């Protein structure tokens, strides 16, 4: 039996997870994007990443971007993989940190040069700092439905890592289908297991649309009562670990799905679409969002 949530919270990841996998745009373009997303009604926006500019040059101006924003009603978050990043994010005024690991040992080793256990241990000082400064922390788990190195991932591994991050102090776990190989059946099986041990209010889904399954996967998650969905305006970003992979599911397409299901979301679809066209113009491309392209053609 369906238990669709009455309201869904969208975490907009285009300005960070999206743009870090695109060619670099100006600080002014990023500020304009985040302001446009806020004006469209988005209340949770990933605004930057406090990581080494050597590894992610697209996010080198995160402190400048965040300092230029004045959005008291918006929850701005940033990726903070270590204490140095957490301190810099706090200094910029960030009130929510994001930390990330994976359900795949191989992915963890290739992506952050350590084991899953080591990655979680590394976060303890970030968590202490967050607690001392009353900052919420969100945990991301990559490769929950498949890995570019290991193939299929055991749902028990996802459960183990999710519980570890919750025990560490994360308020929510974002389950990432990093290479977009998930299907509705696999999503349902994974979430059915997780929901036996973790409350649905502590789980979010983060789907990439590599095989065109993201909306179907979100529908499957909504069907089990999941009420937080990550998405990127205009479908920004590609997956650097899967050649030719498209990026995150487009926020416009998610909003249209929610509208069709009668689920509240509080987002102005036209304004959201306009924000997508504005940033893709700066990138020299078109939105990936089918909904946005259809609206634009009217």
TrEMBL record:
Determine if Metal-binding is one of this entry's keywords. yes
Q: In which pathway does it act?
A: Metabolic intermediate metabolism; (S)-3-hydroxy-3-methylglutaryl-CoA degradation; acetoacetate from (S)-3-hydroxy-3-methylglutaryl-CoA: step 1/1
- The UniProt record lists the keyword Cytoplasm: no
**Matching Gene3D superfamilies, A to Z?**
Aldolase class I
Q: Where is the Pyruvate carboxyltransferase domain?
A: 8-273
Which PROSITE patterns did the record assign?
PYR_CT (PS50991)
EC no.? 4.1.3.4
Q: Which GO terms describe its molecular function?
A: hydroxymethylglutaryl-CoA lyase activity; metal ion binding
Q: Which domain of life is it from?
A: Bacteria
CDD domains in alphabetical order? DRE_TIM_HMGL
One BP term from GO? L-leucine catabolic process
Question: What Pfam families would the database entry show?
Answer: HMGL-like
Keyword list, A-Z? Lyase, Metal-binding
UniProt-listed PANTHER family: HYDROXYMETHYLGLUTARYL-COA LYASE (PTHR42738)
Record family assignment: Belongs to the HMG-CoA lyase family.
What name has this protein been given in UniProt?
Answer: hydroxymethylglutaryl-CoA lyase
């Amino acid at each position: 039996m369906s238990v669709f949530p009455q309201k869904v919270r969208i975490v907009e990841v285009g300005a960070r997870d999206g743009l870090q996998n695109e060619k670099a745009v100006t600080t002014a373009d990023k500020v304009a994007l985040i302001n446009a997303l806020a004006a469209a009604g988005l209340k949770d926006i990933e605004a930057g990443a406090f990581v080494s500019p050597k590894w992610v040059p697209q996010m080198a101006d995160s402190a400048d971007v965040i300092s230029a924003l004045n959005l008291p009603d918006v929850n701005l978050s940033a990726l903070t993989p270590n204490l140095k990043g957490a301190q810099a994010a706090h200094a910029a005024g960030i009130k929510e940190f994001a930390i990330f690991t994976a359900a795949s040992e191989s992915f963890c080793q290739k992506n952050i040069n350590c084991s899953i256990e080591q990655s979680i241990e590394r976060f303890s000082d970030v968590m202490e700092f967050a607690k001392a400064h009353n900052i919420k922390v969100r945990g991301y788990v990559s490769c929950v439905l498949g890995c570019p190195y290991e193939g299929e991932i055991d749902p028990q591994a996802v459960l183990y890592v999710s519980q570890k991050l919750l025990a560490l102090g994360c308020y929510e776990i974002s389950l990432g289908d990093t290479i977009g190989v998930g299907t509705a059946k696999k999503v349902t099986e994974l979430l059915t297991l997780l929901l036996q041990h973790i409350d649905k209010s502590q789980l979010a889904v983060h789907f990439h649309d590599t095989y065109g399954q993201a909306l179907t996967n979100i529908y499957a998650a909504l069907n089990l009562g999941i009420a937080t969905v990550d998405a990127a305006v205009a479908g920004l970003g590609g997956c650097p670990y899967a050649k030719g992979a498209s990026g995150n599911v487009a926020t416009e397409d998610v909003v249209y799905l929610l509208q069709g299901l009668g689920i509240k979301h509080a987002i102005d679809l036209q304004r959201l679409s306009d924000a997508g066209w504005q940033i893709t113009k700066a990138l020299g491309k078109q939105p990936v969002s089918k909904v946005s392209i259809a609206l634009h053609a009217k």
